Amino acid sequence: MSEIRMTGELRTDYDCEATNFPAERWGEAVFTIGDEEIVLEVSVENDVIVALMAGEDAVWKGTLTGLKQILKGEIKAR
């Protein structure tokens, strides 16, 4: 049997909640606004890798550590 290494949750302001989505290797959340998509993908295969996509040509992908450093202003995103 596969090992559950990560779980996901999704909540909205309509008091909708979905919890305990099991994942062995990766998970993805997709938010659609009109004809645009915002995607958050998390992989736990080796290191924790995070990818953020807003449309097709605005993409950032890196480690969880790198994302934290960007959010704290310690490094700049490329």
Would you mind describing this structure in some detail?
The chain is mostly beta strands and 78 residues long. It has a domain at 25-78. It has one helix and six strands, in the order ββββββα. It has one helix spanning 64-71; strands spanning 6-11, 17-23, 26-33, 36-43, 49-54, 59-63. A four-stranded antiparallel β-sheet has the order 3-4-5-6. A hairpin with a 4-residue loop joins strand 5 (49-54) and strand 6 (59-63). The longest helix is centred in the last third of the chain and has 8 residues, at 64-71. The protein is globular and about 35 Å long. The mean pLDDT is 93.
Task: Please give a quick description of this structure.
This protein has 78 residues and is mostly beta strands. Helix content is 10%, strand content 51%.
What's the arrangement of secondary structure elements?
Layout: E1 6-11, E2 17-23, E3 26-33, E4 36-43, E5 49-54, E6 59-63, H1 64-71
Antiparallel strand pairs: 1-2, 3-4, 4-5, 5-6
Keywords:
mainly beta; about 10% helix; two-stranded antiparallel sheet
Biggest sheet: strands side by side, in what order?
Answer: 3-4-5-6
Overall average pLDDT? 93
Largest sheet, in brief, is: 4 strands, antiparallel
- The end-to-end distance, rounded to whole angstroms, is 39 Å
Instruction: Work out the radius of gyration.
Output: 14 Å
What is the string of SSEs from the N terminus onward?
A: EEEEEEH
- From the helix content, strand content and strand pairing, which structural class follows? mainly beta
- Helix tally equals 1
How much β-strand is present in the residues? over 45%
Low-confidence stretches: none
- Roughly how much helix do the residues carry, as a percent range? 10-25%
How many runs of DSSP E, i.e. beta strands?
A: 6
Shape: globular
